[in-house]
């Protein structure tokens, strides 16, 4: 017979309800630990300034730029060949791309600063986006340069574009001088252009 006054032993195994609560609490802390850094990164991307313009290697450097021609988001024909005689920043972008949205004011600044001299301009190529979204974005954010649609991605494929934003500086005689990865800054584009023209 069991003595009711004898101390009872604490079981080694937690009751299922307590164990379940502990597992839920642990999962919650893991979720918070993952969510906070991700939220901070998204916030930084949404509010940050465009990163410094970064030139990278490309098999296109020093070679004739692939043809970039077609219909703009406004329904008019345009082409890179039609801009021969000017320095051209061929910019691949999309309205859903946060770094693209961040660099856009820099491209507007660059374009406007060279408009009077007529020595340089921008040619946009829409990457996996639709014309209406680009029209609405441009109406709000500015940008007077031609923006080509690329519905089959042929232009992006010819340039070897893996994602956006990516840009290429093309010389007045049609040669690719630089490939720029990520967002650009107007001041960096001006420096790049100055060096490409033979400045130090």
Keywords:
alpha/beta, two-stranded antiparallel ribbon, six-stranded mixed beta sheet, 8 strands, Glutaredoxin, 200 residues
Task: Explain the overall architecture.
This protein has 200 residues and is of the alpha/beta class. The protein has two domains: 13-48; 54-196, Glutaredoxin (3-Layer(aba) Sandwich). 39% of the residues lie in helices and 18% in strands. It contains five helices and eight strands; from the N terminus they run αββββαβαβαββα. It has helices at residues 16-47, 98-115, 131-141, 154-159, 186-196, and strands at 54-56, 69-71, 77-79, 87-93, 120-126, 147-148, 166-170, 176-181. The chain has a six-stranded mixed β-sheet, with helices on one face. Helix 2 (98-115) packs across helix 5 (186-196). The longest helix has 32 residues, at 16-47. The protein is globular.
User: What is the average of the pLDDT values?
Assistant: 84
What's the tally of helices? Answer: 5
Give me the count of strands: 8
Instruction: Sum up the overall morphology in one term.
Output: globular
- Output the radius of gyration: 27 Å
Count of discrete domains: 2
Q: Tell me about the biggest sheet?
A: 6 strands, mixed
Q: Strand percentage, roughly?
A: 15-25%
CATH overall fold name of the largest domain: Glutaredoxin
What is the C-level CATH assignment of the largest domain? Alpha Beta
Helix content range: 25-40%
Looking at CATH, the homologous superfamily of the largest domain is Glutaredoxin
> Structural class, please?
alpha/beta
- Largest sheet, order of strands side by side? 1-8-7-4-5-6
Low-confidence stretches: 35-48
End-to-end distance = 100 Å
The succession of helices and strands, N to C, reads HEEEEHEHEHEEH
CATH architecture name of the largest domain: 3-Layer(aba) Sandwich
């Amino acid at each position: 017979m069991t003595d009711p006054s004898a101390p009872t032993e604490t079981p080694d195994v937690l009751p299922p309800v307590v164990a379940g609560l502990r597992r839920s609490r642990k999962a919650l802390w893991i979720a918070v630990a993952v969510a906070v850094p991700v939220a901070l990164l998204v916030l930084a991307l949404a509010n940050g300034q465009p990163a410094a313009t970064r030139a990278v290697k490309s098999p296109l450097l020093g070679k004739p730029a692939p043809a970039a021609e077609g219909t703009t988001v406004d329904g008019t024909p345009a082409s890179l060949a039609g801009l021969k005689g000017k320095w051209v920043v061929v910019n691949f972008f999309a309205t859903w791309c946060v770094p693209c949205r961040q660099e856009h004011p820099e491209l507007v600044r660059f374009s406007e600063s060279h408009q009077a001299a007529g020595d340089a301009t921008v040619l946009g190529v829409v990457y996996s986006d639709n014309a209406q979204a680009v029209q609405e974005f441009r109406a709000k954010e500015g940008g007077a340069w031609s923006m080509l649609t690329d519905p089959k991605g042929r232009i992006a494929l010819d340039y070897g574009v893996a994602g956006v934003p990516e840009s290429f500086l093309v010389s007045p005689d049609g040669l690719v001088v630089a490939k720029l990865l990520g967002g650009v800054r107007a001041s960096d584009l001006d420096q790049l252009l100055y060096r490409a023209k033979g400045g130090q």
